[in-house]
Amino acid sequence: MKKKKLLIAIGLIVVLAVLAVASVAFAATSDAPAAQAIRGFCGFDASELTDQQNADLNDSYQKMMDLRKESINKMVENGTITKEQGDAALKRIDDMVKYRQENGTVGGRMGGGCGSNGCTFTPNASN
User: Fold this and answer.
1) Is this model's pTM higher than 0.85 or not?
2) HSE-up of 54 (CA within 13 Å, CB side)?
3) What is the C-alpha R_g of the chain?
């Protein structure tokens, strides 16, 4: 039971960290009104980022996605979620990475089907 609670706590920490960094990355790479608001709040402009800073953001993003995948795989191993739920969550992560590579931004929702009922790993959940 303690392991399950620990995994849930780790999962929540990972999700919060991903959301925090993703918000900054989104703000740094998008001209959407929400990104402009975040930039105003954080006080930076993406056009002022150096190539190294952009590379660091991309590296951080990839590390976050790898950590999310690792967490999902551990949840499947421990029986917290089913293999099908894990596969669906991993596919959503791969889709987010692909979207970011194609569009140069972190767009759309970062959640794994999070909504008014909390976060779920439901196969075929629409993003």
Assistant:
1) no
2) 11
3) 16
Instruction: Please give the span between the terminal C-alpha atoms of the chain, in angstroms, as a whole number.
Output: 31
- Dihedrals phi, psi of 74, to nearest 5 degrees: -65, -40
Q: What are phi and psi of 118, to 5 degrees?
A: 90, -175
Asked if 109 and 127 count as a contact pair (C-beta separation under 8 A), the reply is yes
Q: Work out the number of other CB atoms within 10 angstroms of the CB of residue 112.
A: 22
Helix (H) or strand (E) holding 21: helix 2-29
Which band of pLDDT confidence, cut at 50, 70 and 90, is reported for residue 85? very high
Please give the structure tokens belonging to residue 15: 């999700």
User: Token digits for 77?
Assistant: 């191993």
The closest of 8, 6, 23 to 110, measured between CA atoms, is 23
32-38-42 Cα angle (round to 5): 145
